[in-house]
Design brief:
19 helices, 7 strands, about 475 residues, 5-stranded mixed β-sheet, two-stranded antiparallel ribbon, mainly alpha
């Protein structure tokens, strides 16, 4: 059986490290393309976002863009720190109970050092939490399987990581802004929706509020761990009969399907070198001396996770799913619709299409969101919060662009850049859109302007496609 070079991670990158190898590679390729010698500019200019939007502006908000709820609270909450601290303690207690349930499933006892970790999280003392987590992680904080951990800790790793991830977000985010961000996401969901969080903040902040705020509790998953059998065990313990979880054979099928598809595209690129390459940037596909194909890297992992997410939806046809992306899952875009700050998967039905009016509503949502985020002193002073909103706006722009709403996508990318000027994602997505629209000179000026303002980003991007080997982005 083919085996991937890298194990599937069960943890998305935290905000300061969102740009993993796959995304860095994609952005770097965009950079190299944008900085090539300019081609002649077309004589006809593309329609401006402002012109297109004014022509298609809707008369009322669409329920699937959920433009009504505020992104940030109208006034500071002096008790926000106390509220978040209480929620963290409650979350630690509930996850300790899940740890015991997971231990019973694996016929083990919860080790004392694991109990001490949960007690540390309940205390809210970050130094104590970090020290207790260091005792457990064995030198690797990502996947469930690691030789440096005890077997019993490895079996409990998904619930340990889940708890640590929430505690880390509480540590990194201002309390009020954490509440605002989580409520903005949860407030966009319709009753009964399954929420799939991608980035650390997009997964763990809503999870904290979902589990500690009363009312309806949504099923919350992450697409980044769907190939991890121990994570699937944890999900089964956590949600029981509420939905049909994936099984090991689902993971095996997704991996086999991806290898077959990657092998076909590898053969195309080898046999037809003059044609456009079908392997994606950062996709590691190699053939050994025995003719066997091996796959690895973050792009392969996310491609398999995308297949598993599709399989999960197939197994639960009566449930609706909302997604907050880590890396773009472009295969989900055809039937997706904007849903507040996230997107609804397979949301396209009769009467619900991503029309020009709904594209305009999505842009209106992000115009309002950007205004509220930047006007709020606490949010605008938090790099974690700004990069989170910027990232989610880029995802919305990606979805709009995939449906051909280029003017609204361009405007949304510009809003994402305005929210977080140091975030490279909107710069390169906007640059790619401009370049494909025949505005290459404008795209190159945009990229150079960004690198001038953030020279450290140039050092991070360019090595990915250099002739020298690289370990990926700098931390």
């Amino acid at each position: 059986m083919h085996t991937p070079k890298t194990a599937s991670p069960d943890r998305s990158k935290p905000p300061s490290r969102w740009l993993g190898v796959a995304l860095i590679a994609s952005l770097a390729l965009a950079l190299l393309r944008l900085l090539r010698p300019p081609a002649p500019e077309p004589t006809t200019a593309a329609a401006s976002p402002e012109t297109t939007r004014s022509a298609t502006s809707p008369s009322r908000p669409d329920i699937r863009t959920n433009a009504g709820p505020r992104i940030v609270s109208s006034a500071p909450n002096p008790k926000a720190e106390e509220i978040v601290a209480a929620k963290l303690a409650q979350f630690a207690q509930s996850r300790l109970m899940l740890a015991h349930a997971l231990a019973r499933r694996h016929c083990i006892y919860v080790p004392n050092e694991v109990k001490q970790f949960f007690a540390a999280v309940e205390s809210g003392d970050w130094e104590r939490i970090s020290a207790a987590f260091a005792v457990l992680h064995g030198g690797d904080t990502s996947g469930s399987y690691h030789s440096g951990r005890s077997p019993d800790v490895s079996k409990l790793w998904p619930v340990i990581l889940d708890t640590y991830g929430v505690a880390e977000q509480v540590h990194e985010w201002p309390a009020q802004q954490l509440l605002d961000y989580g409520n903005a996401i949860l407030g966009s969901l319709r009753p009964g929706m399954v929420y799939v969080g991608g980035t650390d903040n997009g997964r763990w902040i809503p999870e904290l509020l979902n589990d500690t705020s009363g009312g309806e509790s949504h099923i919350i998953l992450t697409q980044n761990a769907l190939a991890d059998s121990l994570y699937l065990d944890y999900v089964a313990v956590q949600y029981g009969e509420r939905f049909e979880a994936l099984k090991p054979d689902d993971s095996q099928r997704a991996f086999a399907d991806y290898v077959a598809d990657a092998s076909r595209r590898f053969a195309h690129d080898r046999d037809f070198p003059e044609e456009p390459k079908q392997l994606r940037p950062g996709e590691e596909v190699t053939m050994g001396e025995d003719g066997r194909i091996s796959v690895g890297g973050q792009v392969a992992v996310m491609s398999i996770n995308e297949r598993l997410l599709a399989r999960l939806m197939d197994k639960n046809p009566d449930l609706s799913f909302a997604l907050q992306e880590s890396s773009p899952l472009t295969g989900t875009y055809a039937d997706a619709l904007p849903l507040g700050p996230v997107m609804e998967l397979r949301g396209r039905t009769d009467g619900f299409e991503l029309t020009a009016d709904r594209a305009a509503e999505t842009l209106t949502f992000w115009e309002l969101a950007a205004g509220e985020v930047l006007a709020d002193a606490g949010t605008s002073a938090s790099p974690s919060a700004l990069k989170s909103y910027s990232h989610d706006a880029v995802s919305a722009g990606n979805l709009l662009e995939s449906h051909g709403h280029l003017a609204q996508a361009e405007a949304t990318f510009r809003l994402a850049r305005q929210i977080s000027p140091e975030n490279p994602e909107p710069v390169f997505k906007l640059g790619q859109l401009l370049d494909r629209s025949g505005r290459g000179q404008e795209a190159r000026a945009l990229v150079e302007e960004f690198f001038t303002a953030h020279p450290e980003q140039r050092e991070q991007m360019l090595p990915v496609f250099s002739d020298q080997p690289t370990a990926g982005p700098k931390p």
